Every structure is written in C-alpha cells, then in structure tokens.
C-alpha cells in the first residue's frame, strides 16, 4: 500500500467516516469511563504484544468491551488500541487509520447485535446460558463486518479480483474469534459478578498461555518451512535443468493426497515429501546432473545413489515423518525393478508411491536436457499404461482424475509456487516416459 491508489484512499476515508458516525453518541452516554480506559489500555497492550510475539489480534478484550459497554463506548476501546498500536509497513498513518476505523465499525456493529438480542441483561445478571446466543451473534457480526471491509480493501488497494477477494476470509476468522469471544464473555460475566474487574482480568492469563503456545507452534512451523526452502534452493542451484521441479512434484503429490481423501496433516507431509524427494542430488557431482545427452552405466549408478544420500540428509528431521521414506523409495517400482532396494508392491511405502507418480508426471511434462516436454494428456496416458507395473494404479488414477478435472499449469515464481488450472492441451503422438534423473 505504499503507492496507495486514489480509490483505496477514498475507500478508507468512507470507512473512517462511518467510524466517526459510530462514535457520535459518546458524549450522551452514561457509562463508567474508568472501565473504558482500563479496557482500552489492556487492548493496546495486547496489540503491542501480539505484533511482537503472537500471530493475530487481541480480540478477548475487544469482545469483553462489546459485552460490557454500550456500542459506541466499546468502539472507543477499539479506536484507542488501534491508534496506539505500532504499524510495520508504510504509509503508517493511513494503515493505522484504516485499522482503527474498520475495528470501530465492526465492534460497534457487534455491540448493537449483542444488545438487540438481550445480551446486556444476561451479562448483568451473570446468566451465562442466556448470554451465549447473543454473544454468538456478536461474534458472527464482528467476523462478517471485518470480512466485508477486508475484502473491499483487497479489491481497491491490492487489485485482487472481486471473485477471490472475500474467498475464505470469513471462515478463517470465525474459529479464532469464536474462541476469543468465549474468553471475552467470561471476562464480562466475572466483571459484573461480585468478584469484580480483578477476577475478570484473570481470564487473560490462560488466554495468554494458550496464545503463547500457538505462537510457538507457528514459529516452529516457520523454521520447518525455512529448512525445506533452503534445501530445495540448494538443489535448484546445483541442477539448473530441474529448477522448479521440486515445487511442482510437491504440488502434484498434494493433489493426489487430497484426491485420495487423506487428512490435512498427511497432505502436508506428502507435499514436503514431493518437495524434498531429490534433495540427495546435493551429494551427486554437478557435472553428471548437468551433462547433456545420455549417461554411461557407471554415471547412472552414481546418480542412483541420490535417494540414499537424501535419506541420510533428512533422517534427523523429525517433523518430516513418512516423507523421509518417500525420499528414500520414490524410485522403487511396483514390479521390483526400481532402486535403491528393489522393493515391490506393498513393500514400497505409500508416500513413496504417491511421489513416484508425481515425479514421473512432472518429468514428462517438463523440458529436460535430454527430452522435450510432453502434452499433459499424453503424460497421463503414459502413466496409465505403466500403472500396475511401474506405478501404483490407485495413485495414477487419483492424479488422472484431478488433472483432467482441474487442469495442470503450475507457475513457479521467485517467491515460491502458485498454480492456475487451465484446460489440458490437445493430445499428439504418444511416446515412452523419459529417464528421470
């Protein structure tokens, strides 16, 4: 947003104007301003900590304000916290104004829904059962307003197509905001109880611990991704003919896993397996990887050591799980004629059978030093022809289904991998699978 389009500035100005309208009734309110000030300080402190240590926004205090205060006063809590929180990217003033305004509008709308559904009376009487419905309505409203506003800024500022701008925003925000909503409701009920505000603040302690654990998970996951990225970049630098191959095999492996109905955790592991399957090429002489033309039998034996090299390299990385077996066995064949151990049939780990199909498919549809890329339909036909002898028929059928349904045209960029689906090209004359180094 550094070079902010005029349309984006106008959009932000409109949201800021809406936020000011939400705050207009403030002078007429009879509300405990000390509570507003305390919640504002807590929210500002939570945002400051979140930006430095944790992912996301500190919603429990915001939602406690929604459940405790009139809507304009709750919106004031959001305003002060957002204006005081640091902004990492430029233009800082515009970003801060945008964040404050969208939160004011969303919190005000959530407060209006909560009060309209009778939530205020339930909180005053500490009737948690009757407060749950209005609280759920407030959470849904908060998520809906943030989704509408965030999608709009993506369209006008980032030029994201309208059909994609709002996709998934609501569902991604619902679970975390819902959990924070329960914490905010507990804070509000305790605040109104004989135990008072001090007891309400104690709710933040377990929330802080759980948030810290969640942040640790994200940091660990980021370290995993960085480790994999470094290994893949090293392989791509060494073997220029297969640059981008690892990411494409990871994508194809993920498509097969999803088509087979595997759970998300396993899908992610198989993506790692596809990305890392050729990491052992770091142990192969560069002159062999870059050799134009066919390899001698002795040179091929050297290259066929790369699965074992790769397995040694990733053996100590515990988070890879069954991906390590795929690195070692992705060149095994169903009929036992593969390498390095000549495993056959079900002796070959399932992860390796997935990656073997994905690897062969990308090898056939990519230009290499020793072969030209084949059209996608011919590559699929070749996989089907070799199913049962070289490849697992179940994995082949899964890839064929998903590619014929969605297309295959991955685009590898400097930042990583994105894919778009296009209709497969028209078939031409069939041929045999090329050697996949």
From TrEMBL:
Name by which UniProt lists this protein: HD-GYP domain-containing protein
Transmembrane portions of the chain: 6-26, 57-85, 97-115, 135-157, 169-191, 197-215
UniProt keyword list: Membrane, Transmembrane, Transmembrane helix
Glycoprotein as UniProt keyword: no
CDD domains: HDc
Entry superkingdom: Bacteria
Sequence ranges assigned to domain HD in this UniProt record: 242-364
Keyword Transit peptide: no
Residue intervals of the HD-GYP domain: 220-415
Stretches assigned to coiled coil: none
Pfam families: HD_5
Region entry Disordered, spans: 415-437
NCBIfam families noted in UniProt: HDIG (TIGR00277)
């Amino acid at each position: 947003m550094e070079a902010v389009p005029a349309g984006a500035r106008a959009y932000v100005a409109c949201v800021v104007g809406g936020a000011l309208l939400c705050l207009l009734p403030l002078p007429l309110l009879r509300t405990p301003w000390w509570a507003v000030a305390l919640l504002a300080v807590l929210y500002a402190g939570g945002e400051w900590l979140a930006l430095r240590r944790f992912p996301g926004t500190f919603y429990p205090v915001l939602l406690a304000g929604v459940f405790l205060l009139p809507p304009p006063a709750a919106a004031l809590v959001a305003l002060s916290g957002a204006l005081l929180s640091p902004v990492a990217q430029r233009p800082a003033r515009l970003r801060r104004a945008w964040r404050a305004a969208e939160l004011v509008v969303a919190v005000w709308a959530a407060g209006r829904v909560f009060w309209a559904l009778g939530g205020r009376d339930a909180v005053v009487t500490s009737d948690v059962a009757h407060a749950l419905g209005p609280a759920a309505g407030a959470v849904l409203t908060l998520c809906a307003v943030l989704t509408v506003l965030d999608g709009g800024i993506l369209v006008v500022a980032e030029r994201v197509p309208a059909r994609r701008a709002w996709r998934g925003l609501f569902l991604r925000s619902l679970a975390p905001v819902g959990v924070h909503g329960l914490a905010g409701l507990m804070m509000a009920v305790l605040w109104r109880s004989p135990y008072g505000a001090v007891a309400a603040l104690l709710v933040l302690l377990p929330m802080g611990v759980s948030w810290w654990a969640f942040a640790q998970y994200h940091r660990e996951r980021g370290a995993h991704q960085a480790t994999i990225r470094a290994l893949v970049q090293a392989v791509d630098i060494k073997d220029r003919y297969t640059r981008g191959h690892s990411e494409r095999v990871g994508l194809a492996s993920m498509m097969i896993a999803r088509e087979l109905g595997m759970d998300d955790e396993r899908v992610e592991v198989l993506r790692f397996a596809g990305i890392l399957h050729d990491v052992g090429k770091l142990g192969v002489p560069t002159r062999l990887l870059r050799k134009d033309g066919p390899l001698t039998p002795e040179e091929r034996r050297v290259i066929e050591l790369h699965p074992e090299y790769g397995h040694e390299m990733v053996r100590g990385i515990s988070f890879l799980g069954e991906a390590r077996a795929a690195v070692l066995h992705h060149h095994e064949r169903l009929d036992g004629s593969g390498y390095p151990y000549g495993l056959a049939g079900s002796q070959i780990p399932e992860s390796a059978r997935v990656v073997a199909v994905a690897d062969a498919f990308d090898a056939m549809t990519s230009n290499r030093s020793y072969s030209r890329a084949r059209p996608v339909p011919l590559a699929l036909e070749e996989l089907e022809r070799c199913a049962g002898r070289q490849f697992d028929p179940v994995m082949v059928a899964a890839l064929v289904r998903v590619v014929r349904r969605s297309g295959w045209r991955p685009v590898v960029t400097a930042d990583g991998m994105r894919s778009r689906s296009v209709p497969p090209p028209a078939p031409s004359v069939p041929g045999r699978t090329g050697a996949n180094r």
